[in-house]
Every structure is written in C-alpha cells, then in structure tokens.
Amino acid sequence: MGTFHYPNGKKVTSIVKKQSSSSIKKDISYSNRGMSLEDDINQSNEYYLLTNQAIIHKKPTPVQIVNVEYPKRSAAVIREAYFKLASTTDYNGVYKGRYIDFEAKETKNKISFPLKNFHEHQLLHMQHILNHDGISFVILRFSATDESYLFDSSHLITFWNEQREGRKSIPKAEIEEKGHSINIGYQPRLNYLQVVDSVYF
C-alpha cells in the first residue's frame, strides 16, 4: 500500500502490487487496440521535436517522497509521498516564438463533454496564459467515436462560468461549432499544430 497526499493534506491511497505474467499478457494484447489521447500527443510531440517544428513537453507531476522501503537491494517501494502542488495543465512549450500551453481530456460520453473533468485552478491558469497573450487551449477527445477537437481556453472558461446557472457539460454540437477537428494520421499521429497554425497564426 502507498499513500499520497495532495497539497490540501488529503490522503490518496494507491495499491502497488506485482503483476502476474498472465495479467501482463492481457495488458499487451488489449493495450494497443486504441491509442490513448496522451499517447497520441506524446508521439506527436516527439515527431515535432525531431523535425524541429516545436518544443512541447508533458509537465512532470512534482512529488515529494517521504517514506521508502527496500525489500530487496535492487528494488525500492514508495510507501508514502506528497503531491507538492496542484497540477495546472498537461503540456507546455514553444512554437513559432509563442508560448503554448494546453490540457488534454477524453470522455466516453457521445453527446457532451462533462465539465467535472476540469478543475478551477486549471481554468485560472488558462486565464493567466490568455492574459499574457500565450496560446492556451484544450484537446478534447470523444473516445467512442475517436474524434479529437482543439477547443480554445476562452470558450472553455465561458462554459465553466455558466456552471453557476446549472450547466454540467459542453454539448458536442457546441464543440464542433466553436472548436476545430484534429486529423489523426501516422506522422504525426495527432497533427494539432496544423490546427494551431490556422487558429492562432
């Protein structure tokens, strides 16, 4: 058992256990049926870096380890750790001399994107980026149909603020209207910079 603490002191317990050979085989056989949004973005970012188009990385989650056990000389087990800070967004970097910062989320919902997938501190961070003329957006994926959209943070903030009036999600029709579809290909897997070019440059 391992325990992680968020900045507010709340504990989150994670179970660390060895996988049996049968479960590992199962993971291998099922994991490549459909790439996750994060995998697609990470592969695309590697391609952008190798082709000298942009420098965009996934932000590491800052963790402070406070309790480690060494059951074997060659193995260490983290028993307790703290998340130092609440996370902001998933990715940031530089593209064509501009700072770029975005979050990536996916949902199994077919007709809307739940706002509960986001957190207030993330929206505040996005607003700060916009205030300083940075490029800020979210990449939203509907996993059931494998559709991905670039959605500017200004639109997300508007929908977020409407929660006070009872809004719980963003209708897919609104995402299709205000967002921009991202093509899925081979290299890069998810060519979101092509959309960034058309929207921000």
Description:
Keywords: Cytoplasm, DNA damage, DNA recombination, DNA repair, Endonuclease, Hydrolase, Magnesium, Metal-binding, Nuclease. It is found in: Cytoplasm. It is an enzyme of class 3 (hydrolase). There is one protein chain. This protein is of the alpha+beta class and 201 residues long. The strands form three sheets. It has a six-stranded mixed β-sheet, with helices on both faces. Strands 2-1-5-4 form a four-stranded mixed β-sheet, with no helix packed on it. It starts with a strand and ends with a helix.
Could you tell me the strand content as a percent range?
A: 25-35%
| Sheet of most strands | 6 strands, mixed
Low confidence ranges: 14-33
SS element count, helices: 6
Radius of gyration: 19 Å
**Gap between N and C termini, in Å?**
49 Å
Question: What fraction, in percent, of the residue positions are helical?
Answer: 25-40%
Strand segment tally: 12
Structural class estimated from helices and strands: alpha+beta
Give the strand line-up of the largest sheet: 3-6-7-9-10-12
SSE ordering: EEHHEEEEEEHEEHEHEH
pLDDT averaged residue by residue: 84
Please state the overall shape, judged from the principal axes of the Cα atoms. Answer: globular
